[in-house]
Write a structure and sequence with these properties.
Chain lengths: ~270, ~220
């Protein structure tokens, strides 16, 4: 014989016929003996009947038809969009499609390699410079020129780049890009008047020379030097570079060699 | 899809009662499904005609109003069209369709949850639902029925989403517990637990309504 509290818990399932076959006889015998539990069971049955009277209204057949049309239109539209997409690619032959995909992949690969080259760690550049130095020991190093320039009172004109932990240069990618552009078109960059006083008749862009103590550059016209001037993002930092226009014995053009040296210096 | 004479006969037979007719109906449904899978829109339409009444009724019981139920039913049929290719031949199509309808209703309910004003017992009392219960006028029978429906809807709204789905499937659609479990993706034990708690909550709500109406009579 089950206890009333046990039966009360089982009644919701009992009235719907969802009780296990093992438990059902026990509940049945208890209900036969217990009036309060039997009354409770009656209430559950009435509640079930009340719930089952929850019938949907008579739906309009026209609205069913409208609903069907809506579904069919939407499904056709979905189907069409896929078909149109597939057809738009259909005229292209498969070999051509394969070539196109390969070309896109190669393009992506080149872009990735180029990007990675721009982001070379410092050590790589150092190796490059060491290689360059070993190749041609007669080449006058331009690094001392910077030091001379600084010693001559042009401090602040040559930037000191902050090196990040891990060997990467900060913001060097952008600066390198600017340097490359500047090397290609050195004349495009305008001279900065407040730091360089050029003598009349002397070309700032084509001539170069030593700095005087006053910070102004005097540029001998007969010197075959190239001047590269870069304004960085910081208005207080400007890069001025003097380098021979042609370096005998070098495999690379002078401007390219200079760029490499600038990169190393940075 | 052009139905030939034999198919039309088959369809007519399906309207009859008895086990053979039911088997033929199942065969015909399988045929329609296969054709719909191949992209036959007429077959899809035939499937919709066969099931739209049941789908809409289930959606109405789940959501409680016709507008939402129609949207959910339409969404359910769109999903049928979308996923029909993944339906395996020989599987129970009705159960699969119920599952889609329940999921569409669940999504609709979640979408409209913030905008929906669930009717509480207090709100129903304010609206005069229990006053209508007291009325004995025959002319108000339709109004009483409408109020009863509102009360049952409110009672169903007290259930959790899973309890409601289980109660609708088991008590209102008349499906077996195991079938409900399959549709809802639960075990039969879990569904029994949900049905038990759902029935207890509905009884509790009904008791409160009856007490409130008796207080009003006194």
């Amino acid at each position: 014989m089950k206890h009333c509290t046990q039966v009360e818990k089982l009644l919701p399932l009992y009235v719907g016929g969802d009780l296990d076959r093992e438990a059902e006889p026990g509940v049945k015998s208890h209900l036969a003996a217990c009036r309060s539990c039997a009354a409770l069971a009656e209430e559950f049955v009435a509640s079930q009947q009340w719930l089952r009277s929850y019938a949907p209204p008579a739906f309009d057949s026209d609205s069913f038809a409208a609903s069907r049309r809506g579904v069919l239109e939407q499904s056709t539209r979905r189907g069409r969009s896929w078909v149109m997409f597939a057809r738009s690619w259909a005229p292209i032959p498969r070999p051509a499609m394969a070539m196109l995909v390969i070309a896109i992949l190669i393009g992506i690969l080149i872009a990735v390699v180029t990007f990675n080259r721009d982001a070379l760690p410092v050590s790589d550049s150092a190796d490059l410079n060491a290689k360059h130095q070993s190749n041609d020991k007669t080449t006058p190093s331009t690094v001392p020129a910077i030091e001379e320039h600084q010693a001559a009172g042009a401090e602040g004109l040559i930037p000191t780049m902050v090196r990040q932990p891990g060997g990467k240069r900060s913001s060097h990618g952008t600066i390198q890009s600017v340097l490359k552009l500047a090397a290609l078109v050195p004349m495009v960059l305008p001279p900065v008047s407040n730091t360089i006083d050029s003598e009349p008749g002397q070309s700032i862009a084509h001539g170069a020379g030593s700095s005087d103590a006053g910070g102004a550059d005097t540029i001998p016209a007969d010197t075959d030097m190239l001047r590269i001037e870069i304004q960085t993002g910081n208005p207080e930092i400007r890069i001025i570079w003097f380098t021979p226009k042609a370096l005998d014995g070098l495999e690379k053009p002078a401007t390219e060699t200079s760029i490499e040296l600038i990169q190393e210096t940075l | 899809m052009q139905l030939d004479a034999s198919e039309t006969l088959l369809m007519t037979d399906c309207l009859g009662l008895g086990e053979p007719a039911r088997e033929k109906a199942a065969e015909f449904t399988s045929l329609l499904i296969e054709r719909a899978k191949e992209g036959d829109t007429d077959a899809l339409e035939q499937i919709m005609i066969r099931y739209e009444q049941r789908v809409l009724a289930t959606a109405w019981r789940m959501l409680g109003n016709e507008a939402d139920a129609r949207d959910a039913a339409q969404e359910a049929f769109l999903r049928v069209h979308k996923y029909l290719k993944s339906f395996r031949t020989g599987e129970d199509f009705t159960g699969w369709l119920y599952r889609i309808v329940i999921n569409a209703c669940r999504d609709s309910r979640r979408r409209n949850f913030r905008n929906r004003q669930f009717a509480s017992l207090e709100a129903e009392l304010e609206a005069g639902a229990c006053d209508a219960l007291r009325s004995t006028d025959d002319h108000e029978a339709a109004a009483i029925r409408s109020q009863q429906q509102a009360l049952i809807r409110a009672a169903l709204d007290t259930l959790t989403e899973k309890e409601r789905a289980a109660i609708v499937m088991r008590d209102l659609e008349g499906l077996a517990t195991e079938e409900v479990a399959r549709i809802l993706g639960s075990s039969a034990t879990t569904v029994r637990s949900q049905i038990s708690s759902g029935r207890a909550k509905i009884k509790l709500y009904r008791d409160r309504v009856l007490k409130a109406s008796k207080r009003g009579l006194a």
